[in-house]
Amino acid sequence: MLSFTAADYSAILLSLKVAVTATLLSLPFGFVAAYLMTYRKFRGRVLLDVFVNLPLTLPPVVVGYFLLLLLGRNGWIGKMVLQPLGINLIFTWKAAVIATAVVGFPLMVRSIRTGMETIDERLIQASRTLGAGLFDSILTVVLPLSMRGIIAGSVLMFARGLGEFGATIIVAGNIPGVTQTIPLAIYEYVSSPRGDIMAVALCLVSVAISVAVLLFHEWLSTRMVRTD
Amino acid sequence: MELQVALRKSYGTFLLDADFALKGERIGIFGPSGSGKSALVGLIAGLHHPDRGLIMLDGETLFDSRQRLDVRPERRRISMVFQRPHLFPHLSVKGNLLYGYKRCAHRYRKITLDSVVEVLGIDNLLDRGVKNLSGGEKQRVAIGRAVLSNPRLLVMDEPLSALDDTLKFQITPFLKNTCRVFEIPYLFISHSLLEMRIMTDQLLNIAEGRIVEQTTAEALARVRMGVSPGGYTNLLRLTAPRRIDGFYGYRWGDQELFVSAGSDAPEALFELSSTDIILFKRHPEATSARNLLKCRVVDVFEAGSRIGVELECGGQRLIGQVVSQAARELHLAKGSEVYAAIKAVAFNKVG
């Protein structure tokens, strides 16, 4: 009979924790980035576009290595910001969150943008002439009307986060019980003798979570949108 | 309402250069599509920004490039009704109606939900979503939403052109009534002279980004009589129909008109072309036309190669047209008496 070890359970929980945290953390930034890219014309818009989408095209290992360089003890952010505050991110679950957030961010922004682009600009103009200021209009018109995109983006990012491997292993390592997520655990089982069964078992857990997430997505998007 | 505008704005090769001042409550902005009407009102409402110039409403400066002043749209209190309703799909009818009202400062809140709902006849829709409303219902809600924001100026940008003809003339009374009851001055944008004549007292005629003239819809219709093969279109609001031998008999002032294509609705609007009115000097003994009206000539005016004749019959006005030869033979002059024959089929019901 197959049974998960304590480390396996903690890998499953950690995976969920990292993916959820990374998604929630990215939501406000993703919304703002999508808004700027959809509605604002400003200098450096192309630059923002490239910067946001870069992790999509870079190998995750490269993203991870850049993050390590930035956040590590001798990195810019590591040295200037984190160390004086007494924070150490590298090889903690928080590093895994950051790695997951960066890698999944373009997926979220793209989905939200797709949602925003379907909003008729006249609706925003109507809200302005009805007395809504810019932020009011964003909160009461743009936000609710891009809800489908926001949900889809969050789900996509969450799912991508569950599978994050390359960037995570570099900035967070593969420490069982601390930073080992499902993909990292699978990797370890596969590379050890007689680990195949456990690897398959964890793969099935992955599939189950993914199916659950997709079903939740369907349910949420039918509930969130008015059809009457 | 007093509006003063002097502005320039270029859109690629198109230049909008508008300079006018006007005072009134029911003002039309008239011109063919692509003439810059919508661009102009977009600038007045603050949705776009002029390259330079000045916009003043009721003595308050809304835009002045010299002072670098540009009042944000939400502060201008100019609400808009667009060609399509553009209702917020995530809100109920009531949520839509109250969107502007909630954002209106308390001291300006004179128009209330109940009164608007009553005037527009939408009380049974309040709790519904907006997706399954009919076209006419949606546009009524859009009008209500704009009016409820208690604006000092209502801008209607081709609010009727997306509606079919029947619906169009069902909505016009709501529009007129609402603005009259709540005393809201408006700018009404359209490329239809007919709509202009129903909705406005004066109009700005705009073409290729410039104001061509400031006139009235009525005057413009008379000028166009000279060039349009359809002549001048008389608009007659007829009441109290009764059926007689396959016709409808309608009250029109203190006389009755016979109309083929009538309906049982208590009031209806009909078009009658000036080319469908035949004038006689004396009472003809018999005629195939079902309507024979004794009229007095109020005015005779030239319109291109034709001569327009303004007639007064039973307290109502009609405009007919003749060629100059006929005018001489009929001895048409102010005060002279003529008989106008109109076939019952000449009346075209528009709403």
Would you summarize the structure shown here?
The complex is a heterodimer of chains A (228) and B (351). Chain A contains eleven helices and no strands.
Task: Tell me what you see in this structure.
Chain A contains 11 helices and no strands. With 228 residues, chain A is mainly α. In chain A, α6 (121-129) packs antiparallel against α7. The longest helix of chain A has 34 residues, at 6-39. Chain A is globular, with a radius of gyration of 20 Å. Chain B is of the alpha+beta class. Chain B is 24% helix and 38% strand. Chain B contains 9 helices and 21 strands. Chain B has helices spanning 37-45, 73-76, 93-102, 113-120, 135-148, 165-181, 193-199, 217-225, 324-330; strands at 2-11, 14-23, 26-30, 52-57, 60-64, 69-70, 78-81, 153-157, 186-190, 202-207, 210-215, 233-244, 247-252, 255-259, 267-273, 277-280, 291-303, 306-313, 316-323, 337-342, 348-349. At the A-B interface, α6 and α7 of A face α2 and β7 of B.
Key traits:
heterodimer, A: 228 residues, mainly alpha, 11 helices, globular, B: 351 residues, alpha+beta, 6-stranded mixed beta sheet, 5-stranded antiparallel beta sheet, 9 helices, 24% helix
Secondary structure topology:
The complex is a heterodimer of chains A (228) and B (351).
Chain A: H1 6-39, H2 45-57, H3 60-71, H4 76-85, H5 93-117, H6 121-129, H7 134-145, H8 147-162, H9 166-171, H10 182-191, H11 196-224
Helix pairs in contact in A: 1-5, 1-8, 2-5, 5-8, 6-7, 8-11, 10-11
Chain B: E1 2-11, E2 14-23, E3 26-30, H1 37-45, E4 52-57, E5 60-64, E6 69-70, H2 73-76, E7 78-81, H3 93-102, H4 113-120, H5 135-148, E8 153-157, H6 165-181, E9 186-190, H7 193-199, E10 202-207, E11 210-215, H8 217-225, E12 233-244, E13 247-252, E14 255-259, E15 267-273, E16 277-280, E17 291-303, E18 306-313, E19 316-323, H9 324-330, E20 337-342, E21 348-349
